[in-house]
């Protein structure tokens, strides 16, 4: 196994294994599962108040946002500060960088407390959705 990689977890039945994360330094250099992100879908996920709910904690200058929180840093210009690989790790598994973070690790399924049984073993966002969010963040220059 590649050092630092998490083994893909087998899902139930005939579903394919969940693609593994390969962390290098403080980033994930390759698209998870080889998915190609779509920035428009990523923007919709970031703005939505259901699955991702990023704007609960992050401000972002976007005409589609009326209210946002400030528990995390603003996301404006984030692509000037962080590489795509760094953005991918922060969205997929921020707990690896800071075990006390309040930001959800959107692609982690292990080592979490208080997960309702219906969601156990499932990441908050799937690999394709992570790539969509990362593709949108990469446009914020
Ligand atoms: C519950 C609050 C919360 C939510 C929800 C949240 N974040 Fe965060 N985020 C934070 C905090 C706090 C930090 C600051 C670093 C830390 O504590 O880990 C952070 C850090 C980040 C960073 C690094 C910023 C920097 O300047 O280094 C990025 C990028 C990011 N978040 C993106 C997102 C995206 C995209 C989503 C939605 C998919 C999201 N966050 C959802 C709280 C949150």
Largest sheet: none
Separation of termini? 36 Å
Task: Sum up the overall morphology in one term.
Answer: globular
The fraction of residues assigned to DSSP E strands is under 5%
Compute the number of helices: 4
Mean pLDDT: 86
Order of helices and strands: HHHH
Number of strands: 0
Q: CATH class, anyone?
A: Mainly Alpha
Write out key terms for the chains shown.
single chain, 141 residues, Cytochrome Bc1 Complex, Chain D, domain 2, binds heme C
Notes on the structure:
- The chain has 141 residues and is mainly alpha-helical.
- The chain has a single domain (32-137), classed as Cytochrome c-like domain (Cytochrome Bc1 Complex, Chain D, domain 2, Orthogonal Bundle), CATH 1.10.760.
- 24% of the residues lie in helices and 0% in strands.
- Mean pLDDT is 86; it is low at 1-13.
- Heme C is lined by residues 46, 52-54, 56-58, 71-73, 78, 81-82, 87, 90-91, 94, 98, 101-104, 106, 133, 137.
Put the structure in a nutshell.
The chain is mostly helical and 141 residues long. The protein is 24% helix and 0% strand. Heme C binds at residues 46, 52-54, 56-58, 71-73, 78, 81-82, 87, 90-91, 94, 98, 101-104, 106, 133, 137.
What's the helix and strand layout?
Elements: H1 39-47, H2 78-81, H3 84-93, H4 127-137
The chain binds heme C.
């Amino acid at each position: 196994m590649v050092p630092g990689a998490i083994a893909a977890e087998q899902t139930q039945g005939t579903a394919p294994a969940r693609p593994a994360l390969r962390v290098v330094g403080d980033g994930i250099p390759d698209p998870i599962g080889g998915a190609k992100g779509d920035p428009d879908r990523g923007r919709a996920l970031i703005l939505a108040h259901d699955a991702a709910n990023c704007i609960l904690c992050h401000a972002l200058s976007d005409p589609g946002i009326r209210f946002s929180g400030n528990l995390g840093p603003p996301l404006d210009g984030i692509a000037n500060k962080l590489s795509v690989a760094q953005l991918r790790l922060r969205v997929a598994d921020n707990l690896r960088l800071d075990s006390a973070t309040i930001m959800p690790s959107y692609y982690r399924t292990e080592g979490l407390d208080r997960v309702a049984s219906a969601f156990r073993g499932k990441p908050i966002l799937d690999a394709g959705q992570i790539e969509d969010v990362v593709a949108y963040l990469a446009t914020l220059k």
